[in-house]
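In this supplementary section we document a worked example of the pipeline. Step one takes a protein sequence of length 388 as its only input; no multiple sequence alignment statistics are reported here. Step two produces a three-dimensional model, which step three serialises into structure tokens for compact storage. The input and output of this example are shown verbatim.
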Amino acid sequence: MNHHLRILDAAVAALLRCRTKTIVIMAVYSLLVALLASLLLYVKTLRTESQRLLATAPEVVVQRQRGGRHELVPVAWADSIRAIRGVAEATPRVWGYIYDVPTGANFTFWGASSVPDSALQLQDGEMIGPDSTGTCVVGQGVADVRFLGVGDRLPLKAADGSLYAPRVIGIFTAESALLTNDLVVLSTADLRRIFGMEAGVATDIAVSVRNPNEVDTVARKIQKAWPDVRTVTRRQILQTYDAVFDWRGGVWAALLLSTVLAFAVLVWDRATGMSAEEYHSIGILKAVGWTSREVLELKLLEGGIVSAGSLLTGLVAAQIHLVVFDGAVFSRVLRGWSVLFPPFEVAPALDAYTLLVCLPLAVVPYLAASLMPAWRAAVTDPDSIIRS
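The serialised model returned by step three reads:
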């Protein structure tokens, strides 16, 4: 053990003698690892948020279409859907979007009668009742950008051009900030008045299924009964979110390709040869009695120290980038450009996938680049190395 510790001490001393070169290599190495780890962890966070968002979503959403466009659904269809075998409940939902001119954001408006109580967590005030009128509850993001508190009014422009200003009676959040940050909940009657929507229609119908294994079967039965509808299952929405996040992450991965190529050039330059000083050092070590195995162990330890230090530094930098700076380098591309997009809290914990991706990138190339020229020098006669 003492023998190996002495070799380790010699490796550290060799790196300190070329500290400028070592620092530059570790800085480039760490930057590449930090960018890659940040990208992987941020995409993972977005997926986690989308799963939380859809935890309370209905198994099937029924939307009516005409000419490829979304159209309002007759409320009477809900009774017929409930009669389908396997359906637990069918709830007509009234919801939509309104562009808020003062903030430049799109607010999501939802009828109180179709909002699951478990999806919202009241922070201040009280929750609105399904039959309340003239009142509303808002998400934390809406309250922040409009400077609203309990008792204030939220001015809105109705479909007929009239001004409607419900009083805010509560501010809420949820486990997933994606769900509630831009959300405003009013009574269904008030929302119909704002949207100019008749009482006999709804935006869509949310269908809950008793047996999760029968979701696709129920969706097919609904489509067979009403050919002009589109059914969207929770699984399809999750797959869409995953595809979007994978695509956006792929865009950034493509942009990082230039950095990867630059690092590959660095590794190739390292692998193609050693400096005269390094050859001379190996020749001296061989001349004083070091074996080829000990020389290779020395170079392996040098490469391992640089690789491990760069990996740890890069992972720490990735966590700082995500936790402190909210992934500022690429957050806009990955999550979108919504004005009220909520901040994310990325837990400083790495999963196996991130480590398995970063480890080969941070360890294998540099170790190989360190051992290949060292092996050529170690098997060469030390006298010829010193003389050359």
